[in-house]
Design goal:
This protein is α/β, with parallel strands linked by helices. The protein has a single domain (about 15-230), classed as Rossmann fold, CATH 3.40.50. About 50% of the residues lie in helices and about 10% in strands. The protein is built from nine helices and five strands, in the order βαβααβααβααβαα. The protein has helices at about 25-40, 55-65, 70-95, 105-115, 120-125, 145-150, 170-190, 205-220, 220-230, and strands at about 15-20, 45-50, 100-105, 135-140, 195-200. A five-stranded parallel beta sheet has the order 2-3-1-4-5, sandwiched between helices. Helix 1 crosses helix 8 (about 205-220) and helix 4 packs across helix 7 (about 170-190).
Length: about 240
């Protein structure tokens, strides 16, 4: 990805923090904890999630229910979702100096869409407008652990979630396993090239969060890092964080 130009004024530039990983990696839990911690320090924080734009939610839902989505259609719908959230929330808030936390970013498309058969070059070109994150955490987890986390208490998997559209297996659970394994391969291929910060997602939740916080402090502008460390006055906390 091409790097974006940050503002030279550290007090006004925003920070983009991204978490990636397969379903069941625990990334969303870690992002939630990070959100609470940063807010407790009085910082301006906004969190955005993959596939959450109201613009395409209804049509995506209808397409999934009727199993009408081709790999390219699926990719374009997710790109539309991302573009809407990017233009309405991510980019403006970064310019306003917010810390933007993204639960999945363009790398999800780079992994999933390519596994579904879309051209890697085409997918990257579609998302070419997106800013490069200040840090991207990749929660690395063995597939068996991730699958066990997802399948606990779930009687069945959804059609596209299981990758049934790819004809990998007639059994939804086996299809899901193969699908997720292929996504892992794509993520692993991006680790060095996209400069991912790899987190061992088999560690205790608290241990992972400590590592995430330490890494985040390294990318925060000096003024914000000082506030987090308590060396400058902070505003009253908006939420209770973990110490």
């Amino acid at each position: 990805m091409r790097a974006r130009n940050h503002s030279t004024d550290e007090s006004t530039k925003g920070i983009l923090i991204v978490v990636e990983g397969i379903d069941g990696s625990g990334k969303s839990t870690q992002l939630h904890l990070l959100d609470k911690w940063l807010r407790s320090k009085g910082l301006l924080v906004f969190t955005t999630e993959w596939n959450s734009s109201e613009v395409v939610k209804e049509i995506t839902s209808k397409g999934k229910k009727k199993a009408l989505l081709t790999p390219t259609t699926f990719s374009i719908l997710h790109a539309t979702d991302f573009a809407d959230r990017y233009e309405r929330n991510i980019a403006p808030l970064l310019r306003a100096g917010y810390i933007v936390l993204a639960d999945r970013y363009v790398y999800t498309a780079f992994a999933r869409d390519v596994v579904r058969g879309c051209s890697p070059h085409w997918v990257r070109k579609v998302y070419g407008f997106a800013a490069k994150p200040d840090i991207t955490f990749y929660f690395q987890v063995p597939i068996d652990i991730a699958i066990n986390r997802i399948l606990v208490g779930r009687p069945k998997l959804k059609y596209y979630e299981a990758g049934m559209d790819l004809n990998l297996s007639n059994d939804p659970f086996e299809s899901y396993r193969i699908f997720q394994a292929k996504i892992i391969d794509e993520y692993e291929s991006m680790v060095e090239h996209e400069d991912f910060t790899v987190i061992d997602a088999t560690q205790d939740i608290e241990q992972q969060q400590m590592t995430v916080r330490q890494k985040v402090l390294q990318v925060l502008p000096r003024t914000l890092a000082n506030r987090v460390n308590g060396t400058t006055p902070v505003a009253p906390p908006q939420a209770v964080g973990l110490d």
